[in-house]
Amino acid sequence: MSHPVVHLLTVLTLVAGCTRSTAKGVDASTSSSVAPSAAGNVPAATPHDSISERADRGRILGDSAAPVWVIVVSDFQCPFCKQWEDASFARVVKDYVNTGRARLAFLNMPLNIHRNAVPAAEAAMCASVQNKFWPMHDALFATQTSWEASENPAAKFDSLAVSVGVNPLQWRQCVSQHQTLPLIEADRDRARQAGVGSTPTFFVGNQTLAGSDKDIPAAIEAALKARQTPKPAS
Question: Which of 15, 10, 8 is nearest to 211 (CA)?
Fold first, then answer.
């Protein structure tokens, strides 16, 4: 079985920036969809090599048979992304991912206003090559305030990577050679093409929700219910 690569289609255009909240969640069922695509059907702009494929697999969490996708478009330096991670991420994983009801993917959208967002994304995605994305994800958000203003956060990221158990030589080579940067840039391009302009933004079923205060568990419940409701006969 091929491993899916997250693929976002065109959705609502949002105001650019790192935001606490925007308008209410938008039902995008008439204008967009969020779906996995097999590796063989990856858009041409998406890198297709062993490094990118391993990095992509590593940032997808949950059972491949889960009925609902939750895609988090995020920036490791965004304070509102950290706010959502601190308040809601563990609950979503515990109640929906670990129970097989949802599958979660992280899509990188490092914003230009955050000087260390791209290096942080590279640190996470190079850890993902070794299937250590989620421990590195947790470590980066937990320590965000200690590296966000750093002139050079490389030593901090190196320490975090070692602490989560990566092979340090392979991880350092990946980072120094920017081996996952094409995938990060493809993530950002895909998000922009989908109309995403703020972080965090979430795609849950047929809904697009922007802002750290959005009730993602409620959106998942709605998506699960929609899948269980029989469609009326035409």
Answer: 15
Mean pLDDT of the chain: 83
Q: Please name each of the domains of the chain with its CATH number.
A: 5-224 (3.40.30.10)
Element (H, E) at 176: helix 168-176
Hey, what amino acid is at 181? L
Residues 196, 179: Cα–Cα separation, whole Å: 25
Q: Under a CB-based contact definition with an 8 Å cutoff, are residues 7 and 24 in contact?
A: no
Angle at 53 between CA 183 and CA 147, to 5 degrees: 45
CB atoms near residue 88 (< 10 Å)? 18
Residue 135 and residue 127 in contact, taking contact as beta carbons nearer than 8 Å: yes
Extract the tokens encoding 150: 């750093």
Exposure class string for 93-119: b at 16+ Cβ within 10 A, else e: beebbeeebbbbbbbbbbbeebebbbb
Has residue 207 got a pLDDT over 80?
Answer: yes
| Length, in residues, of the chain | 234
Residue type, position 69, single letter: W
Task: Give the list of residues 6+ apart from residue 186 with CB closer than 8 angstroms, or none.
Answer: 45, 46, 47
- Please report which confidence band the pLDDT of residue 206 belongs to, taking 50, 70 and 90 as the band edges: confident
Give yes or no for a contact between 223 and 207, defined as CB atoms under 8 angstroms apart.
Answer: yes
Question: Which pLDDT tens digit goes with each residue over 33-88?
Answer: 333 332 233 343 455 568 999 999 999 999 999 999 999 999 999 999 999 999 99
Task: Of 136, 122, 135, 112, give the one whose Cα is nearest residue 180.
Answer: 122
Structure tokens at 85: 């991670």
